[in-house]
Write a structure and sequence with these properties.
The complex is a heterodimer of chains A (about 400) and B (about 325). Chain A is α/β, with parallel strands linked by helices and about 400 residues long. Helix content of chain A is about 40%, strand content about 15%. Classes of the chains: A alpha/beta (about 400), B mainly alpha (about 325).
Chain lengths: ~400, ~325
């Protein structure tokens, strides 16, 4: 009896498998956006409006998937990458996302730009069970796998970055008296939270003073003086570029020499270091996770050669110093790994499952040693970074790759 | 027969607008039409003060934001049903409009335009302000739930939302049309065209302008509430300065001082940005600008003005 059940089970499953084989694409028909010949991917980007500099990411992704298609696509299918403009306005993100999901019928949304924009569609995407993969924002909230199963981040969050600074302080300057200057919004507050994560119970004892500023403030000079006055010998600045440049200058002007950590958001040479003064910024420490396209150290690097080859062929007129193209390439590589892992099952559930199943993925545009890892309980793909110090001419990486 | 039909065209139009899209269009397209209804009411508010009363406002996005936030906060913090937030939102926006109008309208013309513009610039930052953060949710904004159709109606949430917004918009248009056609409307236009004569007729100019401003803010605020329900999310970045400019564009394109024109204006601001983006992803703003200039060149009086001219020719 038992034997017969077993046999019939095997028979049934064989039949089922044969039925499946006999009708290729039958299973796919159930997944919107996936046909026998193509996979539709949607993306919202700020091609117009206040954040249109990020539009380069969208252009980079378009070029990347064109390259993928020229190389034969994935699973016998070509990628149909549909990117639309939302002008960085959340209501338009909602509208465009609904267009992509309901009208164009994409399989998933990739790398949508902006924290408020992704917040606006988060509930919709999760109610519809459409993957919202690798969102282009650094807020920490994009790793909330418990409440938002279908939403995943990509780049290291601000909070993880702050925890990396805390770890470095604990290791190299355990008696530090820390002062923190932060922008009074989610971006700035993520750094306070990250320091709490990293320092743990020692946070109260080690952080002697925190000072905040509003984006509308003209300067942050008095905050810097206050932090110095509180006896801090270590400074963390979580400020956007304009204020970051002011902070570097003021610290130099009052002849204060703290161990100086600066958010990665304000590590741009053009927007921060140059206005502050190349000499005045010497010793400022930040983190990086991607290779800087302007850094001479990567002139002969295999990964960056690969990227340059791609750029030369698919974006011949683009500005090679724009880090957004490096970013887009990294997102593209990660996405292709997910799709390759999908095998033949491109259902939304399996795409999400494979996105949460990345192990030690090496991306050519990330710093050597950084690997992408995800799991059903880790929705932060990049959790590693490397510290780097301004030496007067360039950012100089030092120490090991650190994770949080 | 023909005349009766002509007299009842708004009703016929409304019946058509309610039934046909609900049956024929996809949920996504219905959502777009919902936004058209929302923008139409917002532009209607602006039209009352700018078109009929001649006061240029570049800050109506601020009232739209107030309406949206009133609805979102009431739904999120106190669990008030979405429909019940509309009267409250109307009241608060009218008061806000009155208070803003009180000093602002004593400055005429271009100065008023600048004052209201300043209001629009300040709005996103005020919404992020620490003191209000407990209510407004700061930069994170507020996410609200989508209303379900009531009474077990056999339609989905998008269809219901469209019908609900359309119904509210229809009532607003009816009220506005009656307002401008009556005694008050004539006074509004008198203040716009001949302020000295209007004053001689016994109209208190400043008070009259302020009240008009309040009515206008109320309408735009209700639109904000409807918009928040449709989008299910409010955040400071949703109400940047550009929103006020967009409403103004809708007003001019539709036709200043034309009730029907506001609907065309709403269609324009909802669909033309998408059209521009399909033409060019490299510079959607430039394409939008060219379409806008072409439009104003071909129809200087807005679409309503062009139609009027056509009718006169025919």
């Amino acid at each position: 009896m038992q034997r017969r059940t077993l046999l019939s089970t095997i028979g049934l499953s064989t039949l089922g498998a044969m039925a499946g084989l006999g009708r290729p694409g039958a299973a796919d028909a159930a997944t919107p956006g996936v046909s026998a010949t193509e996979i539709k991917i949607g993306n919202t980007e700020a091609y117009s409006g206040p954040a249109s500099a990020y539009g380069a990411i969208g252009h980079g992704l378009v070029a990347y998937f064109k390259m993928v298609n020229d190389q034969g696509g994935v699973g016998g299918r070509k990628i149909n990458f549909i990117t639309v403009d939302d002008g960085y306005s959340p209501p338009r993100t909602v509208e465009q996302t609904r267009r992509l999901v309901e009208q164009d019928g994409v399989a998933f949304i990739l790398n949508a730009l902006g924290t408020p924009n992704n917040t606006a569609i988060e509930k919709y995407m999760n109610a519809k069970k459409v993957p919202q993969l690798f969102v282009a924002t650094g807020a920490d909230k994009w790793g909330d796998y418990q409440h938002y199963h279908w939403t995943m981040g990509w780049q290291p969050s601000y909070r993880i970055e702050a925890a990396v600074y805390a770890k470095d302080i604990l290791a190299n300057k355990p008696g530090a008296k820390i002062g923190i200057l932060y922008q009074n919004d989610d971006f700035g507050k993520d750094y306070i939270a990250g320091m709490q994560d990293g320092l743990g119970a020692k946070f109260k004892a080690m952080v002697v003073k925190t000072a905040s500023y509003e984006v509308t403030d003209p300067t942050i000079d008095s905050q810097i003086v206050t932090l110095q006055g509180a006896g801090a010998d270590t400074l963390l600045v979580a400020a956007t570029p304009k204020f970051a440049a002011q902070a570097i200058r003021k610290v130099f002007d009052i002849n204060w020499k703290p161990l100086f950590f600066m958010t990665n958001v304000s590590s741009s040479v053009g927007a921060v270091i140059k206005p502050a003064g190349f000499d005045k910024a010497v010793g400022v420490t930040t983190v990086g996770y991607a290779k800087d396209p302007t850094d001479a150290a990567w002139a002969n690097d295999a990964g960056m050669q690969e990227w340059r080859g791609f750029m030369a062929k698919y974006m011949p007129n683009a500005d090679l110093s724009d880090a957004n193209y490096v970013y887009a390439y990294g997102v593209g590589v990660t996405t292709m790994q997910v799709l390759r892992q999908c095998g033949k099952d491109f259902s939304r559930a399996n795409i999400m499952k494979q996105a949460a199943n990345l192990h030690d993925l090496v991306v050519p545009t990330l710093l050597p040693g950084i690997k992408i890892n995800t799991s059903p309980t880790n929705y932060h793909p990049i959790r590693q970074m490397q510290l780097q110090k301004w030496n007067g001419k360039t950012w100089e990486r030092f120490g090991q790759i650190v994770g949080a | 027969m023909g005349r009766t039909l002509l007299r009842h065209w708004p009703l016929l139009f409304l019946a058509f607008a309610a039934v046909v899209p609900t049956v024929a269009l996809s949920n996504y397209q219905l959502f777009q039409l919902t936004m058209v209804a929302v923008y139409a009411v917002a532009i209607l508010g602006l039209n009352i003060v700018t078109g009929f009363n001649g006061q240029i406002s570049l800050g109506h996005g601020a009232f739209y934001a107030v309406g949206a936030y009133v609805t979102a906060i009431m739904m999120d913090k106190w669990g008030v049903p979405y429909w019940a937030t509309l009267p409250v939102s109307a009241l608060i926006c009218a008061c806000t409009g009155f208070l803003v109008g009180l000093p602002a309208l004593r400055l005429g013309g271009l100065y008023l335009a600048l004052t209201t513009f300043a209001l629009a610039v300040a709005t996103p930052q005020l919404l992020k302000y620490k003191l209000f953060e407990g209510w407004t949710g700061g930069v994170q904004g507020i996410v609200i739930d989508k209303p379900d159709p009531p009474f077990g109606l056999p339609i989905n949430a998008d269809q219901w939302l469209y019908l609900f917004s359309l119904a509210v918009a229809a009532v607003m248009f009816l009220l506005a049309a009656n307002l401008v056609r009556g005694r008050i409307g004539r006074a509004m236009m008198a203040v716009r065209d001949q302020p000295t004569a209007a004053e001689a007729m016994g109209i208190d100019l400043a008070m009259f302008k302020t009240r008009t401003f309040a009515v206008s803010a109320m309408l735009t605020g209700i639109a904000g509430s409807l918009g928040a329900i449709a989008i299910q999310f409010v955040a400071p970045d949703s109400f940047a300065v550009f929103l006020s400019i967009t409403l103004f564009v809708g007003l001019v394109v539709g036709g200043v001082a034309s009730i029907g024109g506001t609907i065309f204006g709403a269609f324009f601001i909802e669909f033309v940005p998408n059209l521009a983006e399909q033409v060019s992803k490299a510079a959607p703003g430039a394409v939008y600008g060219i379409i806008l200039i072409a439009f104003l060149f071909l129809m200087p009086g807005g679409l309503a003005g062009a139609l009027r001219k056509l009718l006169r020719l025919a």
